[in-house]
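Section 5.1 Outputs to date
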Amino acid sequence: MERTFILVKPDGVQRGLIGEVISRFEKRGLKLAGAKFMPVSQELAKKHYAIHKGKPFYEGLIKYITSAPVMAMVWEGTNAVAAARQTMGATRPWEAAPGSLRHDFALEVGRNLTHGSDSVKNAEAEISLWFSPSELVEWKRCSDDWIFGQN
């Protein structure tokens, strides 16, 4: 089962949209494997955004992600990375498909509510950065056969 990392960023938390985000992923059929509500340290922020170090917007990203708590989550399912990104919508909210989180709740790139892994490889790296193995739960949901079953 593929896993992906999802973050409800400070704007989503401040706007009271954690429940909406979780609801959308649950309704999509993805299964929650880990979650924690937490502040983001400077150290964690710098590791998470290391790919952007040296870019003009880097310091703003660090300031933003550490400005309020976040909800860090791991979701799993068939093609979890692609399904989660589709559920979130395009990075630019004005390009996001109707019904996606970013289309329905965001107007600005810098306040687009969520972060989601963009590949399986990056999902693995982000999950290991934000979660220890003991914080992830292996479990069988009673509806799994109805969601992931094969004919």
